[in-house]
Structures are given as C-alpha cells and as structure tokens.
Amino acid sequence: MADQRRDGRDVRDSAQGAGTAEGRAVPDGTARAWAALVATARRTVADGLVVGTSGNVSVRVGDTVLVTPSGVPYKQLLPADIVGVDLTGRQVLGTLTPTSELPMHLAVYRATGARAVVHTHAVHATAVSTLVRELPLIHYMAADLGGPVRVAPYATYGTEELAENTLQALTDRTACLLQNHGTIAYGETLDQAYDRTAQLEWMCRVWLTASALPGLSPTLLTEAQVNQAGDRLKGYGQQPSSPSGA
Description:
Blueprint: E1 5-6, E2 9-10, E3 20-21, E4 24-25, H1 28-46, E5 56-61, E6 64-67, E7 84-86, E8 91-93, H2 102-111, E9 116-120, H3 123-129, E10 151-152, H4 160-169, E11 175-178, E12 182-187, H5 190-211, H6 223-233
Parallel strand pairs: 10-11
Antiparallel strand pairs: 1-2, 3-4, 5-6, 5-9, 6-7, 7-8, 9-12, 11-12
C-alpha cells in the first residue's frame, strides 16, 4: 500500500538520496537504473496504460532484477525505495515488498535475453484479450513483436501458472496479451519494452475500431506479408555510418 512504513517512519521521510537504500550505498549504475525504472512506471500511468498501482515494471542489472514494489503509487517512489531481487526471487535490495507479479517477470528473464519488462492493464489490449486467442494481423508492426501476438490463457495473477502461460505465449515473440488481464512486453532496454507495449495497445485499438463498423470486417494481412515487413523493419531508421573509405 502507499502508506507502507519502515521503522515507524513514513516511506516519504526515509529518502537517503540517489544511490542509497536504507542507509546502504547502492552502485551508481543501479541507482540510475532504478531512476529510469521509476520514470517508465510513471509513464505508463501518464499514457493511460495502467490505473492506480496496476501493472509493474522491472529492469535487469547484472544478476539483480529491480522491480516496482507492490501497492505503492509510482509518483510516491523515491531513490531510497529501491527494490531488487536475484533471479530466484530472493530480495537483495530494499525492504518494500516486490510486485505480486514477480514470478512472471523472473520467468521472462530466465527464459529470454530480456533486460527490461513492462506489464500493463491497457484498456484496448485487455479488451482484445477477452475476444480472441491471437490478435488478428491488422497491421504489419506485428512483425516488430515477432509475429502474430498470442493471448496467454487466463490464470490468477501472481501465480506460477500465469508465468508458465506467459512464457508459452511469448515463444519467439517479445510481447503477448494476458487473457482478461493485460499485456506484457520485454526488450533490451526499458524504452524498447515500453515502446513494444505501446505498439501492442495501438494495434489492439486499431483492430477494435475497424471491427466495430456494422456489416464490415477489417482486411487482415497474411503472415507472409508481415514477415516481409519484418525484413524491411530490420533496416529501419538511421544506420551506423560506414568507416571512412569503406
């Protein structure tokens, strides 16, 4: 909850400043990663992807996973509120309780090359998760997520069953829907994980909008068309310059 206390003090009075947690020094790199995690978590609220304390964000620093705490509004998080666990779930930083979805986050880190994970309860994506088992190929940006986005079967939040269902849906993918629940996406950075989350929510909104017109059905792409787009996306954006004379 937002009013968690430590040693009889309100959490807002316990800040030691950047680079500390409960009076113990935290490496600069870890402190910076925590600040970036908090900024990403706040962005999910600002962009309407979560409500209140729903959803969660994590980032891996070496063998430590920094993760948002359970039930604490993101706007109240301070440098001293850092929460970190190892890949087995043993808490190694902070005293606030990690998110209840920790099993799902850790499963993704152990099974993939993820360095950051974002989980949300985005409205359009959650709606789609109740309607289909796979997001119809409404847009070629599905290629950026590895292909057709699957829906992980429902399981109670925070359980190993949900973690396992999520991994199955993420096979060869970087994002999936969670039935009657929300989304999860991962990446090499927090920005990439967030961008994939936002992209998935946008595609779900497009499909719902197109499907809402009476008497009409949206045109869908084939997997071959999406794969072709995926090949082009690999060279999208500014590429590194060749060495002089090359």
